[in-house]
Amino acid sequence: MINIYIVVGTPVVTIGIGLTIALHFLKNPEEIDKWSALYNKFKFWKDENRERKIISKTLDYKITRIAKHINSESEGILPYGLRVKWTKPDEVISYIEQNEVIVVLSKDENSDKNIVEACSAFVPKALLPTSRNCIDETLLKAMDQYVIKQILSYGSFDSSYNYFMKHFFSGIIKSHPTANLFYNHISKVDTIGFFTRVLLEEFRRFGLLLYGTSEETSFKNESTRFLTYLYNIANRQHSERVKLQFLGEKIKIGIIFVAQRATLEKWGLEAHISRIKKDVDIGIKRVYVFSYAHSYDEMIYDKAGYVVDYKTKKTFKSLSQLEKECRKINNITFLKKQNYITKDASGKNRRAKYLLFQST
Amino acid sequence: MERKEVSAILQDDFIEFLKQNNLYDSYMKKELLCEYCQKPISEYNVFTIYFDTKIKFCCDNEKCIEFFNKRKKK
Question: Which residues lie across from B7 on neighbouring strands?
Answer without folding.
Answer: A85
